Amino acid sequence: MVSERKKFYITTPIYYVNDKPHIGHAYTTIAADVLARLHRQLGDDTWFLTGTDEHGANIAKAAEKKGKDVKEFVDEVSAKFSFAWDQLGIAPDDFIRTTESRHERAVNIFLNKLKESGKIYEGEYEGLYCVPHEAFIKESDLVNGLCPDHKLKPERIREKNWFFKLSEYQSEILELVDSGKLLIQPATRKNEVLAFIQQGLEDIAISRPNVKWGIPLPWDSNQTVYVWVEALFNYCSAIGYGFDEEKFRKYWPADVQVMAKDIIKFHCIIWPALLLAIGEEPPREIFAHGFFTVDGQKISKTIGNVIDPNEWVDKYGADAVRYFLLREVPFGQDGDVSEQKLKTRYNADLANGLGNLFSRVTTMIEKYLDGDVGEFIKSPRDLSEVSESFNRLEFDKGLVEVWETISWADNLIEQSKPWELVKTEPAKVKELLVNLAALLYDIALKLSPVMPETAQIIKSALESEKITKPAQPLFPKIE
Ligand code: MSP
Known about the structure:
This protein is of the alpha/beta class. It has helices at 23-41, 57-65, 70-87, 101-116, 170-179, 187-198, 227-232, 234-237, 245-251, 264-277, 309-316, 318-328, 339-369, 384-391, 395-416, 418-424, 426-447, 452-463; strands at residues 7-16, 45-53, 94-97, 120-130, 135-137, 155-164, 183-185, 204-205, 207-208, 216-217, 220-225, 256-260, 285-289, 292-294, 297-298, 335-337.
């Protein structure tokens, strides 16, 4: 019997297109790309989705500010996201935009289902709305009358909305999260979500009357769907909800949804409740990583410390940026990044570490073995823990393991002194170099989800009939 391939469906948030991508968006998307590449390598039937969130008052305002037609504006900014991902070596299987008709169609079906479920009703809402948040905010959450995240005064809104009976899902969601059936990682985030649920869930508005830039409710064209409800559904519409039943059934539920901690309430509470209401399974796991600061400060346009990932890629290369972001901060924790830190790691770990080892080993193979190592099969070190760490989203741990192995290999070369040994015991030098070639090959395999381009260069060099020293360094030193 042919065993069935395991499926693996991974998503990132869909990013707002009010501005071009920055290093924080890149972080999440790189992490998801690494997991997707790892699962493809493991032979899983993998589907990796990312995309852009293009409706809502905030986006309409951003377009207006630029004096642009909204559609034209979102087309431009969305293209900047896909361009940046391409530059970073990120290869999603699909990129969804919420202004696409496939999404709008699926959202319509979803909304009708939701209405049929009897879990929505018409009501009136009065409250405070934080526009950059695209969410209602409680009076008790304000600091000096301002939204603590955006330092802006929320708008007082009194309007007619359609509501979703989130309050009815209190115990079901609590059970789901508490039992780990919906796994929330790291544990601190799970506890945060549990505490929030225990405060009591309130019904939520799922539509807005005065937001024109959005998808109209199928039964009330004066209202558009609340942007968050619509956006969450992208994870289903992209895999064919409502029109490609086979594909949808194949991939849903999502295996891992990666994001930062800022949006876990939407994903760990509202999202599973909406899914339960329409009779679909909640996602299996939500992984919420931490927030980056740049030089110790929040990433913000006003501060002027927004880093465009393209600038780093142009200077250091995609693999170096991917390596740096995942190595620098343990995934799940907050951390600080800067170009100085990138440069330090680039020179120490990549130019002097991996790049140097590759150059040393291939140079010696060329010089002492005339480029021919013969068969190399078994690496002298077991690196299977590396992929296991990546699989647990402990990227820094897996990378540390690889770099410990690189130091080990450097030491081995220093101690064996092949340049002297070759005069007296050439057979020993051959054995050493065969081992080192096997080790480097294994390093390339294990690193390939994180550094696909570099891994390919190393693998092809070692696979070639005659191994030669590299024409140029893998990572030229940057002063
Ligand atoms: N459009 C919503 C998400 C809808 S998903 C159904 C949204 N968009 S966003 O553009 O604000 O993206 C938020 C996400 O961007 C975070 O969850 C995280 O993945 C990433 N990051 C944004 N800033 C970041 C940092 N400073 N640090 C780390 N990640 C950051 O929310």
